[in-house]
Design a protein that fits this description.
Blueprint (H helix, E strand, L loop, with lengths): L2 H6 L15 E14 L2 H7 L5 E2 L4 E12 L3 E14 L2 E11 L2 H11 L3 E3 L1 E7 L3 E8 L2 E9 L3 E2 L2 H8 L3 E8 L5 E9 L2 E11 L2 E4 L14 E14 L3 E5 H4 L1
Parallel strand pairs: 5-6, 5-11
Antiparallel strand pairs: 1-3, 1-15, 2-4, 3-4, 4-5, 7-8, 8-9, 9-14, 10-13, 11-12, 12-16, 13-15
């Protein structure tokens, strides 16, 4: 391979790209989100400056089922999102993510800086009436959430607006000597959103302390509620909103 050919490669390994080239289109992407009040000190510790927690002291725990994801495959995901502001504008900080798909882990970390780790999340309807999310890490249950199945209908236009809210990741990639090579806050907005159904209801969440999947570090103090929705959407490339190396 000459230099031009090397620079045209999509990703490692050169012989076979690990993931498809974005943008990525998701069909029938299913979300289950539990919003709860947590410890403000724990939230502040989890949020990197110059992001600021939005003051609500809330956290959203999510399960997402993605049966049809262009360039990535079919997989499920679970994790923690914290409402924040950046320069006074609202956004969500993606704090932890766990999933069962190698292309999505590799592409997510390398391009967008998603905090992805390998685990086994599952989203299922149990015994006809309860939408249930579980997360196992190293075969140990670390999270379980429940909500009545399609309890109250939500406005689909408002749901689409919430999906389009700016999301922010902390992208960290070391150099070959272990020093930071990339240290950025990266933002993106999901696009081309079509909501196919949206519901809300009371929800409950059980978190188990685990050193390698520390979802319980943001403990549940009080429940706000749950949401369940299904949508088609597109994940585009992202943009850098803060570069720690340049600031230093």
């Amino acid at each position: 391979m000459n230099q031009k050919e090397v620079l045209s490669l999509q990703s490692m390994p050169a012989a076979s790209a690990s993931y498809g080239r974005p943008p990525c289109r998701f069909i029938n992407r299913e979300f289950f989100i539990i919003t709860y009040e947590s410890d403000p000190a724990a939230i502040r510790q989890a949020v990197p400056e110059p992001l600021e927690p939005d003051g609500s002291n809330t956290v959203s725990y999510e399960w997402i089922k993605m049966p049809d994801s262009s360039g990535l495959g079919s997989y499920e995901e679970s994790g923690i999102v914290i409402p924040c502001t950046f320069q006074g504008k609202p956004c969500n900080f993606v704090a932890q993510m766990y999933l069962d798909n190698a292309p999505a882990i590799l592409g997510g970390r390398e391009i967008w800086g998603f905090p992805k780790k390998w685990a086994k999340p599952r989203l299922r309807v149990e015994e006809t009436e309860t939408l249930t999310g579980t997360l196992h890490y190293n075969n140990v249950l670390v999270a379980m959430g429940t909500i009545p199945f399609k309890y109250h209908i939500l406005d689909e236009a408002e749901t689409a607006k919430s999906i389009a809210k700016t999301q922010v990741n902390l992208k960290l990639i070391p150099d070959v000597d272990g020093t930071p090579k990339i240290a950025q806050l990266v933002a993106y907005n999901l696009e081309n959103i079509t909501v196919k159904g949206a519901w809300s209801g009371p929800a409950r969440l059980f978190l188990v302390p685990h050193v390698n999947a520390p979802v319980a570090d943001l403990p549940v103090k009080a429940y706000v509620g749950g949401k369940h929705f299904i949508a088609d959407l597109t994940l585009p490339y992202a943009r850098v909103i803060h570069d720690y190396l340049q600031e230093s």
